[in-house]
Backbone:
C-alpha cells in the first residue's frame, strides 16, 4: 500500500497503476475472508450471536460489493474470463445477503412513519431501547414501536387505541399487517441467506476469493497501466447520469412529482424512480474507484457522502411506499386499515420527493464548490 | 373621495380622517346594494342566470366583508351600538353566502388531485371545457373531471378503469363518493343561501346597508380623527400573529409537519392550522384597512397578494384534506376506496405544508425588500 499517501488532485503525482488495484483487491478479499470467519464463529442463527451474525453478513456484502465494483470499473486490467465468472456470483451473494436487512429496515421505517403520522409521543422505556438498538437506517426520533404492536398478531385481534401508544385502530392494524408481511419476508430471506452460505455455489465463490487474497489475476500489461483514466470514466458515467436527472424540478420544493402516479392503475407506477436508483449505483462505483486509486484509504468526500445518503433514503422510501401499496392489496382488510396504508404510501412517496430535493441540494453544493 | 391621490408613505401627507372612512363605507354599501339588485334581476335559481347569481353572491360577500372589517378596525370612529348590531349580521350573511362556493371549489380541488394522483393525461374536449369554466381556485393543469365521473352514481356501479380517464377503481370510487357528499352539501348550502336572502333577517341587514350608503354613523369626533393609528394597529396585529407562526420550520422544505397528525385518533387533529387561518383573516383586515385609508383605491401590493394567495391555498387544502378524511369514515366503503382517500388526504396535507412554505417565501421577500 505504498500509494496511500498519493494526492489524486496533484498533477505531478505518481502514476497509479494496476499494482495498486492488485493491493486493493487483495485487501478486500482478506476482509471478505475475515467476515466469513466471523460469521462461522457466531453461528449465524443462535440468539446470542444474532447481532454479530448480522454484522458479519454486512461485512461480507461490503467487501463483495467493492470487489465486484472494481471488476467492473477496471475490467481492462483483469483477466476477462475470471472477471466474467466472478461478477454475477458476487452480485448473487450480496443480493441474497442484503434482503433480510432490507426487510428489517423497511419495516422499521414504516412503523416509525405510522407513529409519526399518529402524533404518538408516549415513550415507554423498553420501546426506546428496541428502537435505539434497531434503527440504523431510520434516523428519526424514537417512538414506541414494538411496545405498541407486541400484543398484536393480526388485524382480527387489534387492541384498543389507548393500549397502543395512541395509534388509531386503522394505523395499528396497518402496522400489524405490515409487521406480519415484512417479518414473514424477512424470515424467508434469513433462511435463504443461511442456505446460500451453506451451498456449494457459495463455497466456490469463497474459494475464489481466498485465491484473490494472495493472487490477483491482472493482465500482463496491468502493472504498468494507469488506473486514472478508468476511474475518470466511472466518474463520467456518474455525472452523465446525473445530468439526465430532472434536477430543476427536484430543486423546486413541493413539486408534487413523486406522488404523481400514487393511484395509477399501472402495476409498476414509478418508472420515474429508476434513473435515481441507477445514479445511486453509479455513485457507489465512483466511490469504490476512488478507494482503489487511494489503496483503500481515500479521503472522506462529505459531498459525495451527503449525495449518497440522499439516494439511499430515496431507495428506502421508494421501497417502503411500494410495500404499503402492496399491503393495501391484501384481501379482506378493513377500510380503516386501507386508509392508513394510503396515508402511509403517500407519506413515503413524499419522502421520495424530499430525498430528491436533498440530493439536488447536495449536488448543487458540489458543483459550486469544485470550480 | 378627495383622498384618493394621497401617498401613505409620505410623512408630509394630509391627515386621513374619519371623513375618508365615511366615503369608503358609503362606497362599499353602494356596491352591496348594486350586487343585491344584480342578484334579484338574475333570480338566483334559474339555469340561465346561475353564473350571474354566483357572481352576485360573490359581490355581496365582497362588500359585506369590507364593511364588517372596517367596523372592526375603525371601531372607535363609529357609533358603538350600531357597530355591535351590524357586525354579527354581516358575518352571518357572508358565511351563509360563501358555503356553496366553498363546497364547489373543494370538490373541484379534490377531483383534480385524484386525477393528478392517477397520472391521468387524457383530455376529452368537453372535460376541459368543464374544468376551464369551473376551476377558479384550483390553478392546476386541466384533466378530465366530470367526463370521468359522469356515469357514476356510487361505488356500487363504478365503470371499468379504461372508461374513466385512467382512474383506478379505487380513485374512481373515491371521486364518486366525494362528488356525492360534496354535491349534496353544496345543494343544501344553495337552498340555505336562497332562504337567507329571502328572510326578514336579511331584509333588516339590507335596510341598514341602504341607510349606510347615504349616512355613516360616525362619532362626533371622527371627522377630525386620524385613521392611520387604527390602520397601524391592524397591521401590528397581523405582524404579531405572523411572528408567532413557526416560520423557520415552514421555510425548511419537506419538514413533514403538516401530516404529523394524519392518522391521529384526535377528532380535530389539526389545531396546528388554526394560527395560519387566523393570520389569513388578519391579513385581510389589514388589506381592507389600507383600502379605507386610500378611499377604496389602494395601490396593489404584490407581496401581500402572494402571501394572501398562499393562505387561501392553505385554507382550501386544509379543508379538502378534512373532507377526504371525513369521506373515509363513510360506513361500508370498499378498502380500495378508503386507500385512495388516504392517499388523497395525505396529498392535501402536503399541499398545506407547501402553502406554508409559499407563505414563508412571500413574507421573507416582504421583510427583505421593505427596510
Residues:
Amino acid at each position: 500500500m505504498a500509494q496511500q499517501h498519493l494526492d489524486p488532485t496533484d498533477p505531478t503525482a505518481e502514476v497509479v497503476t494496476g499494482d495498486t488495484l492488485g493491493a486493493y483487491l487483495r485487501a478486500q478479499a482478506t476482509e471478505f475472508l475475515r467476515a466469513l470467519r466471523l460469521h462461522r464463529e457466531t453461528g449465524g442463527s443462535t440468539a446470542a450471536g444474532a447481532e454479530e451474525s448480522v454484522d458479519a453478513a454486512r461485512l461480507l456484502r461490503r467487501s463483495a460489493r467493492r470487489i465486484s465494483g472494481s471488476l467492473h470499473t477496471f475490467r481492462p486490467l483483469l483477466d476477462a474470463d475470471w472477471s466474467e465468472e466472478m461478477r454475477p456470483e458476487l452480485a448473487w451473494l450480496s443480493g441474497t445477503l442484503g434482503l433480510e436487512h432490507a426487510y428489517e429496515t423497511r419495516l422499521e421505517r414504516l412503523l416509525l412513519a405510522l407513529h409519526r403520522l399518529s402524533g404518538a409521543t408516549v415513550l415507554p422505556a423498553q420501546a426506546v431501547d428496541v428502537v435505539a438498538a434497531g434503527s440504523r437506517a431510520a434516523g428519526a426520533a424514537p417512538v414506541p414501536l414494538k411496545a405498541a404492536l407486541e400484543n398484536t398478531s393480526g388485524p382480527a385481534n387489534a387492541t384498543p387505541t389507548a393500549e397502543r401508544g395512541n395509534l388509531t385502530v386503522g394505523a395499528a392494524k396497518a402496522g400489524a399487517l405490515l409487521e406480519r408481511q415484512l417479518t414473514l419476508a424477512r424470515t424467508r430471506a434469513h433462511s435463504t441467506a443461511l442456505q446460500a452460505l451453506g451451498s456449494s455455489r457459495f463455497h466456490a465463490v469463497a474459494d475464489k476469493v481466498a485465491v484473490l487474497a494472495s493472487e490477483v489475476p491482472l493482465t500482463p500489461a496491468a502493472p504498468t497501466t494507469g488506473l486514472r483514466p478508468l476511474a475518470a470514466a466511472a466518474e463520467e458515467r456518474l455525472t452523465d447520469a446525473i445530468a439526465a436527472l430532472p434536477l430543476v424540478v427536484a430543486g423546486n420544493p413541493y413539486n408534487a412529482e413523486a406522488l404523481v402516479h400514487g393511484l395509477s392503475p399501472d402495476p409498476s407506477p414509478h418508472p420515474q424512480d429508476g434513473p435515481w436508483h441507477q445514479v445511486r449505483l453509479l455513485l457507489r462505483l465512483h466511490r469504490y474507484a476512488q478507494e482503489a486509486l487511494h489503496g483503500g484509504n481515500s479521503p472522506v468526500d462529505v459531498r459525495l457522502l451527503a449525495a449518497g445518503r440522499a439516494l439511499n433514503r430515496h431507495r428506502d422510501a421508494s421501497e417502503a411506499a411500494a410495500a404499503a401499496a402492496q399491503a393495501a392489496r391484501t384481501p379482506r382488510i378493513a377500510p380503516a386499515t386501507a386508509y392508513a396504508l394510503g396515508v402511509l404510501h403517500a407519506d413515503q412517496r413524499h419522502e421520495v420527493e424530499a430525498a430528491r430535493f436533498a440530493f439536488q441540494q447536495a449536488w448543487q453544493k458540489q458543483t459550486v464548490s469544485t470550480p
